[in-house]
Design a protein that fits this description.
heterodimer; A: mainly alpha; globular; B: alpha/beta; Rossmann fold; 2 domains; 3-stranded antiparallel β-sheet; 26% strand; binds adenosine-5'-diphosphate; binds magnesium ion; nucleotide-binding (chain B); ABC_transporter-like_ATP-bd (chain B)
């Protein structure tokens, strides 16, 4: 297992994808935090502390993390390297675990850093400079779970386009559509989507469920995606 | 036995790609795997490497399924297709990731790069490689774990005459060291020049498994022997 992780780690850092993704993530985070801070100062946004502003600003930067996580899996199929990779590490479970370990490490660390960056940017603009560390840790955990979800889903679907479409549906497209009519049944369904559950975890509101439940729902989706990906890898020819 | 196939069968939907192959591939010689395009050679090799799941039957390497080995690259080296590396990764980094996956010392990477004559291009990205350089990188990967068994799918496809000569020499040398070399081709003359033992398949079925000299003996040329085999099978 250590060898498989070491190999995936090497692969991650030896193409340009990771650098573009991190550059995009930090740029989007800083820009969104700056913009949101001005909204806060204008009283347009309920957030108050710098940490809250960072949490709000993840909405856009998360796409760079999701894309990075997904590409760790889908690039094996688009570049045609999956057969080579599986001949190095024939155990499908070991390969998927190694990829998830690498993605989780990078999205957690990258997420915390992005959260700190967003918090620092916001602290320079809004009055209340508190909660920066707490916000950054939440962002790191959220992006790590999202990254694991994306990796599992990518293993199940294989194609980058279909994977990204399904992810965006679950995170940013379908929940708002369900919430627009403001009917309680539809709102209840929206609350079970990974994007909304993640929002509840990040924002720390206790309506309709406590923060910890939001975290558990997001974890549930991540586990589901990983199991689906593992089963497809196990069953289908490479 | 280095490679053992037992009633190995694979169907894709309604296509019968490999049809009950029984075969043993021995060490110490180059075994050619000959058959027309679509005969099932690549499918057979993928099943040996645990990439495609047999519909029925088994494929074993040194008595065990490939996927059961913790460090398979130390057991088997394979060249399946020229596009085995990510286009954005350098040849050296590709081999480094490969070495790490099987706990092979990183120093071995430069050794195999030297063996295949790719030292200068190792720092370039795979996407810029010619077909011949890609094949050399594939061979470097196959040799990385110093394996006793080598499996090569159409390794001379698209190579220039120098490259073809080089591979032929390399394969014979590896067999002379006592390794098992199992190499596929749809080119008769290529097989005649490289292999000392020949396995012929068509439509997924075994047609012949014999020393090259025996096949040549009864006929004027390998070509005559081959067409007699494939026509009597059709
Ligand atoms: N992944 C696949 N899906 C469907 N059919 C396949 C697949 N791989 C091979 N085949 C079919 O199986 C047969 C054998 O193919 P292959 O093993 O590639 O032959 P060869 O390598 O001898 O040219 C062909 O009819 C081919 O079309
Ligand atoms: Mg083939």
């Amino acid at each position: 297992m250590r060898a498989a992780i070491s190999s995936e780690w090497t692969k991650l850092w030896t193409t340009r994808t990771i650098w573009w993704a991190l550059l995009a993530a930090f740029t989007l985070m800083a820009a969104a935090a700056g913009q949101n801070s001005f909204y806060v100062n204008n009283g347009d946004v309920p957030a108050t502390s710098a940490g809250d502003v960072a949490v709000l600003s993840v909405a856009i930067a998360q796409l760079a993390f999701v894309a990075l996580a997904m590409l760790v899996m889908t690039s094996e199929y688009s570049a045609g390297t999956i057969r080579a990779t599986l001949s190095w590490v024939p155990s499908r479970g070991r390969l998927l675990s190694a990829k998830i370990a690498v993605v989780a490490a990078v999205t957690l660390a990258g997420g915390v850093l992005a959260g700190l960056l967003g918090g620092v940017v916001a602290a320079g603009i809004v009055d209340d400079a508190s909660d920066i560390t707490g916000g950054a840790v939440k962002i790191g955990i959220y992006l790590m779970l999202l990254g694991v979800l994306a990796t599992g889903l990518a293993a199940a679907l294989r194609g980058p386009v279909v994977t990204l479409v399904v992810l965006l549906m679950g995170i940013v497209v379908v929940p708002p559509l369900l919430q627009i009519p403001d009917i309680s049944v539809l709102n209840g369904i929206a609350d079970t989507f990974p994007g909304v559950a993640g929002d509840h975890f990040l924002s720390g509101d206790s309506n309709p469920y406590p923060q910890a439940v939001g975290l558990l729902i997001l974890m549930g989706w991540a586990v589901l995606a990983v199991v689906a990906g593992w089963r497809v890898l196990q069953r289908r020819d490479a | 036995m280095a490679i053992t196939l037992q009633k190995l069968t694979k169907t894709y939907g309604r296509t019968l790609a490999v049809d009950g192959l029984d075969l043993e591939v021995r060490p110490g010689r180059v075994t050619g795997f000959l058959g027309p395009n679509g005969a099932g050679k690549s499918t057979t090799m993928r099943m040996v490497l645990g990439l495609d799941r047999p519909t029925s039957g088994r494929a074993l390497v040194n008595g065990r399924p490939y996927a059961d080995y913790q460090w398979p690259l130390r057991e088997v080296g394979a060249v399946l297709e020229a596009k085995a590396a990510h286009p954005g990764r350098t040849g050296r980094n590709h081999l480094l990731a490969m070495a790490r996956s099987n706990a092979i010392p990183a120093g071995r990477v430069d050794e195999v790069l030297g063996m295949v004559g790719l030292g200068d291009a190792a720092g370039k990205r795979f996407g810029t490689y010619s077909l011949g350089m890609g094949q050399r990188l594939g061979l470097a990967g196959a040799l990385l774990g110093d394996p006793g068994v080598l499996i090569l799918d159409e390794p001379v496809n698209g190579l220039d005459p120098d490259g073809v000569r080089w591979i032929r020499r390399l394969l014979r040398d590896l067999a002379a060291e006592g390794r098992t070399v199992f190499v596929s081709s749809h080119l008769l003359t290529e097989m005649q020049m490289t292999a000392s033992h020949l396995v012929v398949i068509a439509k997924g079925r075994l047609l012949a498994d014999a020393p090259m000299d025996d096949l040549l003996g009864g006929h004027g040329s390998l070509e005559d022997a081959y067409y007699e085999l494939t026509e009597s099978a059709a």
